[in-house]
Design goal:
Distance between the termini: 86 Å
Number of helices: 3
Helix content: over 70%
Oligomer: single chain
Number of domains: 1
Largest sheet: none
């Protein structure tokens, strides 16, 4: 059985980390979802968000 050197093991681990980082960056770059402010407000209203102006108008 061949003896492994610690430098070879560390080099393999380092290359694996770098390679997986690049793959993760490339994968996440394709998932760039842009939503508009109107979509954010619409979703927030579905969850019960109200604007301060609406509360003031209802109080008068």
């Amino acid at each position: 059985m061949r003896k492994f050197h610690i430098k070879s093991i560390l080099l393999g681990i380092g290359i694996g980390i770098i390679l997986s980082s690049f793959i993760g960056i490339i994968y996440s770059a394709g998932m760039d979802n842009k939503i508009t402010k109107e979509e954010i407000v619409e979703r927030a209203k579905q969850y019960g968000m109200i604007f301060p102006e609406e509360v003031i108008e209802e109080g008068d």
